[in-house]
Amino acid sequence: MISIDNLENILFNLIQDNLLYFTIIISAIIGKLKESSKSNIFTAWIMYLIGTLFHELAHLLVSIITYGKPTWFSIFPSKQKNEMNETVGYTLGYVSSNNLRWYNVFLVAMAPLLLLPLSYWIYLHFFDYCDKSIITIVSYIFIIISLLFSSIPSGTDFKLVFNVKSIQNLIVPVIIMFLLFYFDFSINSILKFI
Q1: Range(s) of the domain holding residue 131
Q2: How many structural domains comprise the chain?
Q3: The overall pTM is greater than 0.90
């Protein structure tokens, strides 16, 4: 007869030996749950909470660092309405800033992209800080997937950068790209400092 401890060891070894496959399965489950949660504001908020928190924190921190003068931070959902006052979707969170200018609007709007190196760091070091078990492996996959989904700037983020003054807003990314190529920065050279 199989004991609960033996069953847990069997499941643990199965997951650990097939981590990529289980990552794909959990990604599909999370994606399906997030898709089906959009019909109800409360379930959408629960499903997107971790990702929304990190997404909006990225905006907030970069706004503070680049003197964007943030005035409000929210991770509580609100309804989006059209001209006919019909609900067309939800805003899961936002950061309001009073000083978005040509030199910081790109950095503030694209701040969620900073979640990519964070998710990579967690990918590399998560199990340095906790033991491997079924729960920690599933948590590990869930955290990384949430960070990856949340690292994508929203439609509003893109609208901030590509508005009427878009040529002016693209000065900072062009300078950043020039510096990266000029100083030959690579991901490996950046990661060795982390």
Answers
A1: 4-191
A2: 1
A3: no
